[in-house]
């Protein structure tokens, strides 16, 4: 099957800055991929290239097997919701109506439902909306478009926790009913951790992690207890982080532990705590860019 | 084709910019001229105003707005830059047909009423827009398209290269004009140049304008190809 997105040695260089460097990855159809990384890591640039808004300076990008830039056939099958989408001076209802003309799978019912859920004032001009409401307009379009490939780039700037939860719930429900390929870029990793099936992490324009989310979740464990016991237990393992407080220690190791090892830790009176996806990625980002994290 | 029509519909959602404002501003300019010609004593030839220029200048501004303010959301809608440009051009052509007809009708009224009873020449411009109605319609149409496309090109140059680009764009146009002047002078062709403009028919001039409009369109289309939003 043709991958939905496939990038080969993709690069994007601006005058004195490398935004993307030798990025190769594939996104298979029908899964939710989290595109993670720090500010300036290249997430937005990558999504802009995928959606044909930006042109790569090196390498090759294919979406549905074709070059996306200036390709109407490919472009109409995807929707890209951006953090700070600029709108012309129109009312909310106009923007929604315009979007409905362009997306072949547009669901008017869903759009109405979401507009109500997010409490959006239909008659208000976009420029009079708060930041959060403007983000919500983008989310409504992104979900109601039911595009085969849906990309969200930090779609919830200014949205409160309740509205964000609403977005996650709707996204999941929609994904279950109308499967599609979703790429979600975000800083709020723990909030979306359960949604993600695959994780791609960028750092300084390079891919530092590209793995199924379940594999990533298994790695990383914090071992804490009496310092001597902890040190004995972690000896010979890859240590990410070490913390000591008096006679007690807490050490984060990169390995996953099998059942026997976990039992052994308990017998030594050590407590084990798996790292959250967010913590794992913070550690992954700490690894220098030329050293890939194998998951 | 349906994509292009949808792009045109997208622009028409904002009726203020493309319908209400151009005609509203021209109506205002017309009223000012009516009041002036009613109060100031006019000679037997009546008053010639340049007031008609307002609608053309306004369409130039509208064209620039289409390519600056409306473009980012336009490209969010899953269409190529090319489709956006061609769809917009479709709207420009359709609007110019209708607007040109409107201007022609107003000119017919102006003629029939001897310049609104005031010997005012607002919709009549000697020589270029003073012939039969179909010729006025054709010339108005071509000029409207020309100004629209010219404005669009300005907007695109700004989007792509920002202020330095705009400055370079204007400088380049001045240089082209300068080159023409120098070339005509060097070849001692000023009399031929003047001869062309005194003998050319309005229809032939309209043809020249149409060629310029086509050049504007090609310029805009090649500029939008690598615009990023």
Approximate shape of chain A: globular
Give helix and strand order of chain B, one letter per element, not per position: HHEHHHHEHHH
Radius of gyration of chain B: 20 Å
For this structure, the CATH topology of the largest domain in chain A is Rossmann fold
Structural class of chain A: alpha/beta
What is the radius of gyration of chain A? Answer: 22 Å
| Alpha carbon gap, first and last residue of chain A | 24 Å
What about the largest sheet of chain B? 2 strands, parallel
- Overall SS class of chain B: mainly alpha
The overall number of domains of chain A is: 2
Q: What separation lies between the terminal Cα atoms of chain B? A: 24 Å
Mean pLDDT of chain B: 91
* CATH fourth-tier homologous superfamily of the largest domain in chain A: P-loop containing nucleotide triphosphate hydrolases
Q: Tell me how many strands of chain B there are.
A: 2
The major beta sheet of chain A can be summarized as: 6 strands, mixed
Return the CATH architecture of the largest domain in chain A: 3-Layer(aba) Sandwich
Greatest chain-chain interface?
A-B, 33 and 23 residues
């Amino acid at each position: 099957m043709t991958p939905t997105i496939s990038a080969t040695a993709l690069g994007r260089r601006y005058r004195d800055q490398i935004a993307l460097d030798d990025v190769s990855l594939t996104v298979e159809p029908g899964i939710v991929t989290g595109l993670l990384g720090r500010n300036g890591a290249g997430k937005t640039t990558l999504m802009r290239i995928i959606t044909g808004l930006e042109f790569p300076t090196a390498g090759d990008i294919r979406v549905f097997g074709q070059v996306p830039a200036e390709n109407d056939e490919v472009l109409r099958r995807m929707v890209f919701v951006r953090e700070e989408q600029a709108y012309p001076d129109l009312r909310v209802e106009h923007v929604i109506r315009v979007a409905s003309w362009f997306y072949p799978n547009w669901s008017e019912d869903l759009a109405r439902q979401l507009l109500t859920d997010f409490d959006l004032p239909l008659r208000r001009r976009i420029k009079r909306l708060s930041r959060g409401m403007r983000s919500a307009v983008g989310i409504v379009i992104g979900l109601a478009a039911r595009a085969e490939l849906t990309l969200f780039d930090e779609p919830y700037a200014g949205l409160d926790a309740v509205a964000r939860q609403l977005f996650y719930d709707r996204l999941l429900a929609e994904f279950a009913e109308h499967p599609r390929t979703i790429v979600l870029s975000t800083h709020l990793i723990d909030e979306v951790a359960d949604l993600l099936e695959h994780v791609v992490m960028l750092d300084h324009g390079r891919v530092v992690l590209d793995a199924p989310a379940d594999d990533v979740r298994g790695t990383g464990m914090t071992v804490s207890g009496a310092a001597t016991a902890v040190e004995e237990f972690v000896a010979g393992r890859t240590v990410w982080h070490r913390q000591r407080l008096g006679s007690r220690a807490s050490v984060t190791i990169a390995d996953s532990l099998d059942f026997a090892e976990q039992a052994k830790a308990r017998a030594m009176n050590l407590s084990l705590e798996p790292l959250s996806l967010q913590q794992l990625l913070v550690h992954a980002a700490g690894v220098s860019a030329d050293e890939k994290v194998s998951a | 084709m349906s994509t292009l029509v949808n792009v045109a519909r997208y622009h028409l959602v904002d009726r203020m910019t493309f319908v209400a404002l151009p005609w509203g501003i021209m109506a205002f300019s017309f009223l000012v001229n009516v009041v002036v010609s009613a109060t100031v004593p006019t000679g037997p030839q009546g008053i010639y105003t340049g007031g008609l220029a307002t609608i053309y200048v306004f369409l130039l501004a509208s064209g620039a707005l289409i390519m600056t303010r409306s473009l980012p959301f336009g490209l969010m809608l899953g269409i190529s830059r090319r489709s956006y440009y061609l769809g917009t051009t479709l709207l420009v052509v359709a609007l110019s047909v209708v607007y040109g007809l409107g201007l022609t009708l107003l000119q017919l009224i102006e003629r029939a009423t001897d310049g609104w009873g005031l010997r005012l020449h607002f919709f009549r411009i000697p020589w270029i827009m003073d012939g039969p109605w179909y010729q006025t319609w054709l010339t108005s149409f071509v000029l409207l398209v020309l100004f629209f496309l010219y404005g669009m090109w300005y907007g695109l140059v700004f989007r792509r290269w920002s202020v330095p680009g705009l400055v370079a764009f204007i400088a380049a146009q001045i240089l082209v004009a300068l080159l023409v002047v120098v070339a005509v002078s060097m070849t001692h062709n000023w009399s031929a140049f003047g001869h062309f403009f005194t003998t050319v028919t309005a229809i032939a001039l309209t043809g020249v304008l149409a060629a310029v409009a086509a050049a504007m369109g090609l310029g805009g289309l090649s500029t939008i190809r690598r615009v990023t939003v």
